[in-house]
Amino acid sequence: MSARIVPPASIGFVGLGNMGYPMARRLAAAGFRLLVADLDQGTVQRFCTETGASAPNSLRELGQQASVVITMLPDGKAVRLVLLGPEGVMAGLQPGGLLIDMSSSSPVETRALAGQLGELGFPLVDAPVSGGVVKAVAGSLAIMAGGEAAAIAAVEDVFAALGKVFLTGASGSGHAMKAINNFLSATTLAITSEALIAGSKFGLDPATMVDIINASTGRSNSSEHKFPAFVLPRKFTSGFYLGLMAKDLRFAKALSDAVQAPNVFVDVISRLYDDAERALGPQADNIEIHRYLELLGQQQEQT
Ligand code: NAD
Predict the structure, then answer these.
(1) Which residue from 35, 69, 81, 100 has the fewest beta carbons nearer than 10 Å?
(2) Looking at residue 264, what is its pLDDT?
(3) Integer angstrom CA distances of residue 13 from 24, 56, 124, 208, 298
(4) Is residue 82 in contact with ligand 1, taking CB distance under 6 Å?
(5) Ligand 1 centroid vs 240 CA: distance in angstroms?
(6) How far apart are CA 143 and CA 23, in angstroms?
(7) Do the Cβ atoms of 91 and 12 come closer than 8 Å?
(8) Which CATH number is 177-302 given?
(9) Does ligand 1 have an atom closer than 6 angstroms to the CB of 141?
């Protein structure tokens, strides 16, 4: 049975990007002692100055000093490197230490990693999140937690500082749920874009179309939030990279394939985002799928 982690327990937090930075800041504000790491040393310095957190000299030292280590990295490959690479977290983590991967990693890879870490005596909880930067700042993320119930219960206070927990079941199920959610999220964004471009070309006003869709049966989280905030004002600054969304869709596709579920839509949407990533680059904003579809429209006009 894992001991409950309460402030001022030490939390190692690896990955201070668009999401990790505000999440770690909330944990510091809740009274936890933060030990942080990121490839970008400037960001690490800024975080430590802002919050009073410390930056150990190595990931091994971070593991040694932490009761729980959270990873918020691009994907499971980076997580594996940080945990099991040379001088990684696992070289220092003490018996009883807990691991939480809050990145959106591949569910299949997570199962394998959790098995490997379990053999070393350390439970891995997969706890990806939804809600974007805005909800990371507010501490109102949806947290999809898979893994051992006792380990999840032990970090209840950690999760409480970040958002609301939904238990998804066995190891890897949180990451499966996240990939499935982002399949839906990416799909409504792309299909609403396609619909809006067609309507605009016919002469309809885009803002009027969004108002009507939001009062009608075609509405979605994308039409209600992303179109007014980002697409209509052409502000491609949501804080979620196109390359990360394309990665999540590849995970959703691999999941469908692994369980032999129908993959008609996930196949098309995943290929669309892969093409957009190739055309616009991985660090384009995910909202720029709209710009990519506009480009496709312009190419069609020329043929
Ligand atoms: P990001 O690219 O902004 O941040 C990732 C951070 O990890 C960077 O600061 C990078 O320097 C660091 N990093 C990468 N490899 C590292 C390593 N080996 N060691 C130490 N640091 C390393 O990404 P993000 O938007 O913060 O997303 C993080 C994860 O959360 C991703 O899996 C993403 O899919 C997921 N996610 C993002 C959002 C969003 O709105 N941005 C929402 C939900 C989930």
Answers:
(1) 81
(2) 97
(3) 7, 11, 14, 44, 44
(4) yes
(5) 9
(6) 12
(7) no
(8) 1.10.1040.10
(9) no
Options 3.90.550.10, 3.40.50.720, 2.40.50.140, 2.60.40.10; which CATH number does 10-169 get?
Answer: 3.40.50.720
* pLDDT tens string 133-172: 999 999 999 999 999 999 999 999 999 999 999 999 999 9
Instruction: Report d(CA 133, CA 124) in Å as an integer.
Output: 24
Residues 6+ apart with CB under 8 A from 170: 146, 147
Whether 15 lines ligand 1, by a CB cut-off of 6 Å, is: yes
Half-sphere exposure of 124 (CA within 13 A, CB side): 32
Is 46 touching ligand 1 by the criterion CB < 6 Å? no
Q: How far apart are CA 80 and CA 128, in angstroms?
A: 16
Give the count of beta carbons closer than 10 Å to the beta carbon of residue 240.
18
- Considering the candidates 135, 164, 178, 247, report the single residue annotated as catalytic: 178
Instruction: Decide: 57 and 89 in contact? Cβ < 8 Å.
Output: no
* pLDDT for res 63: 98
Question: Can you give the pTM of this predicted structure?
Answer: 0.97
The reported pLDDT for the residue numbered 300 is 87
What are the DSSP calls for 71-138, one per residue? E--SSHHHHHHHHHSTT-GGGTPPTT-EEEE-S---HHHHHHHHHHHHHTT--EEE--EESHHHHHHH
Q: Cα–Cα distance between 42 and 287 in angstroms, integer?
A: 27
Mean predicted confidence (pLDDT) in 189-205: 98
CATH 1.10.1040.10 maps onto the chain at 177-302
Which atom of ligand 1 is nearest the CA belonging to 85?
A: 18
Task: Identify whether the C-beta of residue 73 lies closer than 8 Å to the C-beta of residue 82.
Answer: yes
